[in-house]
Amino acid sequence: MKFYDRVQELEILREIEAMSAESAQMTMMVGRRRVGKTTLLRNAFIATPVLYFFIGRKNEILLCEEFTEEIEAKLGETFGRFSSFAQLFKVLMQLSKRKNFTLIIDEFQEFRNISRSLFSDMQNIWDANKEESRINLVICGSIYSMMKQIFENSKEPLYGRATARMHIHPFEISTLKAILTDNYPDYKPEDLLAFYLLTGGVAKYIEQLVIRKAFTKEKILKAVLSPGSYFLEEGKDVLIEEFGRDYNNYFSILALIASSKTARGDIESTLNMPIGGYLDKLENEYNIIRRVRPFMAKEGSRNNKYRIVDNFLQFWFRFIYKYRSAVEIGNLDYVRQIVERDYETYSGYVLEKYFRQLLAESKSYSDVQSYWDRKGENEIDIIAVNDFEKRLLIGEVRRNRERINLHILENKAAEIVKKYTDYQIEYQGFSLEDLETGKPKPSRSVKHT
Length: 449
Description:
By secondary structure, the chain is of the alpha/beta class. It has helices at 7-19, 37-44, 60-75, 85-95, 118-129, 144-152, 173-183, 189-199, 203-211, 217-224, 234-243, 247-258, 264-271, 276-284, 311-321, 324-328, 332-361, 406-412, 414-418; strands at 25-30, 50-54, 101-106, 135-141, 164-167, 289-292, 305-308, 367-371, 380-386, 391-398, 424-431, 447-448.
């Protein structure tokens, strides 16, 4: 698959590369597994020689042997053998005083399993050499919680050492459309929704579908729910290392959230256990869920819901993990029937998320949320506000355009509108048909001030 997008990220990385010609740079890059960090880094640097070190789970001496071969091939320097990475890193920092180059260390968090003292050693070596160094050091990791701990915990040696931080996110909707257009220009709105629903813009998942030429809803679901599918074990592969021994409780919570039990009380009553600590870690350490409040709710509001951030993980917990017994005995036809049965309702939820994301990516609003009252009723799918221009967009999302009723929407929003008397209000309907347009078209709009 060709390299897509990442224009802003490339610009930032190349600016950092240019600065490294004058002073040492340390960039910490994080992003979920499969999002495309390594591909981005391999395409980013054009002005310096690039060393790429992948930290696999193997003996430290063997890793150093691999890295010395890379140094000799890329920099033409020979240093002999090393028994520890700290020794090798010290030599590279000294070399960077006379030679400007880029060093990428991928899956950096794996050093925790190889050499616990390395982070302290790197801190001392960096501090002792950085003033004269011209290294462009990029430290990349995919275990979000570990990378955050290493670089953002004030008790850790490398705290405060990074000169730049980058969080790599999945592709935006415009890029998904470009990929589909390049590979299957006759795609329908239902195909685009399925493509978004399954991949969420994660580069590796997109690549898997491109390889299989799965660009229609039917082919996408078949690619996911077929014997030997790459996707069947993917949720475990991505998360078990994050969660460790306690993964069963985390998985149970995520499965309930994926099945629409999104309030803390509902989850606790189902599992019969307190989950506050788990929810806090899932949100703040692992970056897997997000606590959302209804529009206008105050910071301390208890009227919260939890949502899984990642589209694929949402689908995986809703259909693959939930029906894992059928998956394990190879009865994927059964799972496929469940998906087909629930698809219209489930994809309707994803459609709401699609349009909220599309409005956020348009850069036309300062906030994009949804709304529900304390009883969990009177729901409004989209409320987008532009406080600078004093505009408020209130939207209803339905797969079927005929089911959109803006008069009912106006009634639902009456109490909200009373608090925005000096704003221009627009009521807008969004349907499956509107996925194809650059900007969703209203079913009917009503504006007043």
